[in-house]
Amino acid sequence: MPALASQCEVCRQWGGSALCADCVARFAAPVPRCGRCGLRLALPAAACGACLRDPPPFEHTVCVADYGFPWDALIAAFKFRGRPELAAVLAGQLRAAAASAAPAPQCLLPVPLAPARLAERGYNQAWELARRLGRMLGVPAEAQLLWRPADSVHQAGLGRAERQRNMVDAFMVDPRRRGELAGRRVALVDDVMTTGATARAAATALLRGGAAAVDLWVVARTPDD
């Protein structure tokens, strides 16, 4: 059955996808990045200077593009304006970016939302991405293995040091399911990585809970000023 016609969310051209091939080629072209944190670099490197000085607990970061036009608007609509259907096109781009990720993860986990934030939004955007990626890749996705039991100050508007303090002990592994995590490589899925404070805290909790290794898969990476 032919794909239903739809407008590209960026250029409004009619076609068979919410993100047309021209816009993918223009805005999702691979660029050199730090293999560890995904930061855009002049030349590709296994680790940037910041990661060499202070290695993050996740081993590798996959991302589609820098956080900027048009990804900022797409992610804002997906995350804050009640458009979970955009998860399909964003997950498709993340799958393409992760095609060469090796070794492959054995499980996909969304960065969880705190209960009040989840109730306010109605869905966890990271889970919407992770569950679609799981189906695309044939990899199990688990929504409840990693918890964020308490509400904290919203990360938006906080500086790097404040974000790190805000994330101390923010996550925990379900103690009844540690056996499912033990010895497994997992990919932690989220929409945006800004300073990396959330990803660091979540990855640390997973390693403490028994994971063998953690990678980070995000749609967009905020450039370093």
pLDDT averaged residue by residue: 90
Could you give a short account of the major beta sheet? 4 strands, parallel
Q: Approximately what portion of the residues adopt beta-strand conformation?
A: 15-25%
User: How much is the radius of gyration in Å?
Assistant: 17 Å
Q: Could you state the order of secondary-structure elements as H and E? A: EEHHEHHEHHEHEHEHE
Spatial arrangement of strands, main beta sheet? 3-8-7-4
First and last CA, distance: 47 Å
Structural class per helix/strand content?
alpha/beta
Shape: globular
Helix content: 25-40%
* Count of β-strands: 8
**Regions with little confidence, pLDDT below 50 for 5+ residues:** none
Give a verbal description of the structure.
The chain is an alpha/beta fold and 225 residues long. It has nine helices and eight strands. The chain has helices at residues 21-27, 49-53, 71-80, 87-97, 115-121, 125-137, 160-166, 178-181, 197-208; strands at 6-7, 14-15, 61-66, 107-110, 146-147, 172-173, 185-193, 213-221. Strands 3-8-7-4 form a four-stranded parallel sheet. α4 crosses α6 (125-137). The model has no long low-confidence stretch (mean pLDDT 90).
